[in-house]
Specification:
Structural class of chain A: mainly alpha
CATH topology of the largest domain in chain A: MetI-like fold
CATH class of the largest domain in chain B: Mainly Alpha
Radius of gyration of chain A: 31 Å
CATH superfamily of the largest domain in chain B: MetI-like
Number of helices of chain A: 16
Oligomer: heterodimer
Largest interface: A-B, 91 and 87 residues
Distance between the termini of chain B: 55 Å
Number of domains of chain B: 3
Strand order of the largest sheet of chain B: 2-1-3
Shape of chain B: flat
Number of strands of chain B: 3
CATH superfamily of the largest domain in chain A: MetI-like
CATH architecture of the largest domain in chain A: Orthogonal Bundle
């Protein structure tokens, strides 16, 4: 349905383009060429864009809101015997049942109220779809008519077309802001819901994290404790291990590549490091489980040390491998940005290349390198798949890298997989964790970007 | 203050060939060599780790590109399969009979159960589909090749060691003996495992394939491209060419750079809270996945487009403006065509990143267990990376090599996309 409608809109726009262009061509042929303000192609483009764009926006907005509106109407139409005193999760259960029945996925004979509601749901959806088609078609016809009326030799079709382009461009740029805005609003909203149920002091200072509470009455589960401190320390522990692995390797390889290696070595090694950056994180996660964890455990048992199967060491170490190319390429950029004159000056005074690097280049490039490390830290804190697969699930307040710890991202994933009801502290706590994660990474990113920017300006 | 003359005299007194000067020099040169060595060691470590990563994937994954099959004769008895309704036949019994014919000399229920266990559980479904598509087979006896079930597949590939004591193996001596008689009669054959690419997911490793995941990833990526490419270019043109320089545009600039570094899981939370909760879009659908990936890819495309526009020499802009083109015409007729190779390259690399993205898709539920590929962007689906995650979590031994194989398939797609990007860059990029 939507596909055909989009196709219709495109065809309509093409038709409008043709109408506009041929009208303008007729003026040009009939009258004085110079009297026509815009070239015929602009008359066509003007008609096409004003016919197609509003219709497209209408369809998009309609599709986004249609289901929500129909759902609300159907829920309101349910008999009060069902909805009275029902919690929001029960309502959402009704809705999904109604949807299933309406889509023909019937597993058992539905209750008559549900069946009736499903019928209403199906018929209203069809109605809404047809209403959308009719409204879109009327809008396009009206737009085409208005555009055709406007087209005249003196009409400034190019300006009008360019105005439409401006609107498209500005709204596209606004979308980028809207995304951040959407992240902040949705996370904050759900986090506030969470803090209504669990006091922030418990969340930020509590030492006990056991969020697997019963959502339905018949589930066996913990009593629920939402002290996130062990989750935060676990995240920091794994990120720290990752940085301890990645910083020396990344920094030293960048130094070698920029200052010592010849062009051929650079041409081979840089792409190899980029491959490390291009490997999806789920692959690193599987690698950690398949190869690294057994190897580390065997090494441990060789020395008589018991290492947990999902130790922080494994997760952090593999995450470190992932971050190496990140640090190396940012350090590479920072070192390259140091002016050649500083390098030459130091060498001319008789310093060896190594002395030049450690005493002149690295100090000069330090802000850039620090910015890179901050960005890498933000990456490590927000990395998800490696820790979901290789790190533990239980929150453990420890600094011992051989034990299993959990992280913010692991908790978000485990809390949200499978559960959809948003009215209990368990699922809502994932959003509180997400908000903390967003704020922390935001601070790291902005600080890093500011440092790098200032550093770049210094040498430009 | 030391007078200049004394310094020169002091400098002149240094004996560069004295023992201390020599050993000092030696130390400094040694420090230089050490730094070089550390650099080489660091690079070697990185390369070695990449090597270990790829070797461990290939060494476990290559096994899954081959599947062990057994050949057997099946007789479609018209009494078991009604001619007018072949879908209703008792194919389970037909398969059991066929296995019984493979082993004429066994009797006893437990032995027969062992023997039937050699053949995949999906054999009856495969047979059923074959008969439905060709009803003339009813009443005939013909030979078919079906996959053997996972433990025997592992046995044939020598993943299960036949010399281990019986209680530490997944197959007992009796089961192995049955299988070995088939091997001796030449009925067992390893064939290329096309099912890995053309089957959807299954609970049985020998039947599980990536078709559903590939289709799901394709839909999500297509949607991601359709949204993020035009929107990203439009936003970049505005920011680069039209936006005034003030605090607001600085804010947008910081915002976009930050968005490019926001953890992907945050986008998953956004998709869950906004697209699924507020707008009521279907869970697990490639539609939501594509939207989330589009929002993630948008900053990448904006940044790449701005850099490509910046790289076009100002003389072109000035020449076009000089002969009377409007600012929009300068962009549409000159800047954008010249910048498009760079934009395309960056976009393909951004798409490759989106293809490997897992965490946000997990949160919006694209990790469902589905035995058929999605029919459209509104239907539940998985994607390649989430399928890898599902398989990595499965306990069956056969899924280990299948996970590695799925990763190799995913890496294959990524290499292909990056190769296209590199080719485009070398072919189309202009040096000014």
């Amino acid at each position: 349905m939507t596909g055909y409608l989009s196709l219709t809109i495109i065809l309509f726009s093409l038709a409008a383009f043709y109408v506009g262009r041929s009208a303008a061509t007729r003026f040009a042929v009939a009258g004085d060429r110079l009297a026509v303000h815009s070239r015929p192609i602009y008359h066509g483009a003007f008609a096409a864009i004003w016919v197609g764009l509003p219709a497209l926006v209408l369809v998009l907005v309609w599709l986004l809101f249609q289901d929500g509106v129909v759902r609300t109407l159907v829920v309101q139409s349910l008999p009060p015997s069902l909805t009275e005193g029902a919690s929001s999760s029960q309502i959402s259960l009704f809705v999904s049942e109604i949807r299933n029945v309406a889509a023909g996925r019937i597993f058992a004979e539905p209750r008559p109220e549900i069946a009736a509601a499903a019928e209403r749901y199906a018929s209203w959806t069809v109605l809404a779809n047809w209403a959308m088609v009719v409204v879109a078609l009327c809008m396009m016809a009206l737009a085409l008519f208005l555009a055709r009326v406007r087209i005249s030799p003196r009409y400034r079709a190019r300006q009008s077309f360019e105005r439409a382009l401006d609107i498209i461009m500005i709204s596209s740029a606004a979308l980028a802001i809207l995304v951040t805005f959407g992240i902040i609003v949705s996370l904050t909203y759900e986090a506030i819901q969470f803090f209504r149920l669990v006091p922030p002091t418990e969340f930020f200072f509590g030492l006990n994290w056991e969020p697997q509470i019963a959502i339905r009455a018949d589930q066996v589960a913990g009593t629920g404790a939402f002290g996130a401190v062990p989750v935060f320390t676990g995240t920091l522990l794994i990120a720290a291990i990752a940085l301890i692995v990645a910083i020396p390797v990344g920094l030293l390889s960048a130094i070698y590549l920029v200052e010592f290696a010849n062009r051929r070595v650079r041409g081979i090694v840089k792409p190899i490091l980029e491959i490390l950056a291009g490997v999806p994180t789920v692959v690193y996660g599987f690698f950690a489980v398949l190869t690294v964890a057994p190897a580390v455990r065997q090494t441990g048992s060789l020395f008589g040390i018991a290492i947990s199967p999902n130790s922080a060491l494994v997760a952090g170490g593999v995450m470190g491998i992932m971050i190496i190319p990140f640090i190396s390429s940012l350090a590479d950029d920072a070192l390259k940005a140091v002016p050649q004159s500083m390098r030459d000056g130091s060498l001319a005074l008789g310093a060896t290349p190594a002395e030049t690097i450690t005493k002149v280049l690295v100090p000069a490039a330090l802000p850039g390198i620090m910015g890179g490390i901050l960005l890498a830290a933000s990456r490590a804190i927000g990395e998800t798949m490696i820790v979901v697969m290789a790190a533990g699930l239980t929150a453990n307040l420890t600094a011992n890298p051989l034990e299993g710890v959990t992280t913010v991202t692991v908790q978000i994933v485990t809390l949200l997989i499978g559960d959809t009801a948003f009215d209990n502290p368990k699922t809502l706590s994932a959003f509180a964790l997400g908000l903390v994660l967003f704020v922390v990474t935001l601070c790291l990113n902005v600080a890093a970007l500011k440092i790098v920017q200032r550093y770049r300006e210094k040498y430009e | 203050m030391i007078e200049p003359t004394t310094t020169t005299r002091a400098a002149a007194r240094i004996d560069w060939n004295s023992g201390t000067a020599r050993s000092l020099r030696k130390k400094r040169y040694a420090a230089d060599r050490r730094l070089r060595f550390y650099g080489i060691a660091a690079i070697s470590i990185a390369v070695l780790l990449l090597g270990i990563l790829l070797t461990s994937l290939v060494s476990t994954g290559y096994l899954a590109f081959v599947q062990t099959h057994v050949t057997m004769d099946v007789a479609i008895d018209p009494e078991q399969v009604p001619v007018d309704n072949p879908a209703e036949g008792n194919y389970r019994a037909i398969v059991a009979d066929a296995v019984q014919r493979l082993f004429p000399d066994i009797d006893g229920r437990s032995e027969l159960r062992n023997a039937v266990g050699i053949v995949t559980n999906g054999a009856q479904v495969m047979l059923r589909n074959q008969v439905i598509s060709d009803p003339s087979l009813i009443g005939k006896t013909f030979s078919i090749q079906v996959p053997v079930s996972d433990p025997y597949d592992q046995l044939y590939k020598d993943v299960i060691d036949r010399d281990l004591p019986e209680n530490r193996r997944r197959l007992n001596d009796e089961q192995i003996a049955l299988f070995e008689t088939l091997e001796d009669r030449g009925l067992i054959e390893a064939k290329a495992n096309w099912a890995l690419l053309f089957n959807a997911d299954s609970r049985f490793p020998e039947l599980a394939g990536l078709a559903g995941a590939i289709v799901g990833s394709f839909y999500a990526l297509l949607l991601c491209f359709v949204i993020s490419f035009p929107v990203g270019i439009a936003a970049a043109i505005y920011l680069e060419e039209f936006a005034p320089k003030n605090r607001w545009t600085d804010l947008i600039e910081v915002n976009i750079n930050n968005l490019a570094a926001v953890p992907s899981i945050i986008f998953g939370l956004l998709g869950l809270a906004v697209f699924i909760q507020v707008f009521g879009l279907p869970r697990s659908a490639p539609l939501v996945g594509g939207l989330v990936l589009a929002l993630m890819t948008l900053p990448t495309i904006i940044i790449v487009t701005r850099n490509s526009l910046k790289a076009v020499p100002p003389s072109i802009r000035e020449a076009a403006l000089g002969i009377g083109a409007s600012r929009h015409e300068v962009i549409l007729h000159h800047l954008l065509p010249l910048a498009i190779p760079g934009i395309l390259t960056g976009t393909i690399i951004g798409m490759a990143q989106a293809l490997g993205e897992t965490a946000p898709l997990l949160l919006i539920g694209m990790n469902a267990f589905l035995t058929s590929p999605p029919g459209g962007i509104m239907e539940p689906a998985t994607s390649l990376p989430t399928q890898i995650f599902i398989w990595a979590d499965s306990p069956e031994r056969g899924f280990v090599s299948r996970t590695s194989a799925a990763i190799l398939v995913l890496l294959g797609f990524l290499i292909l996309m990056n190769a296209i990007a590199i080719y485009l860059r070398s072919k189309l990029e202009r040096k000014w």
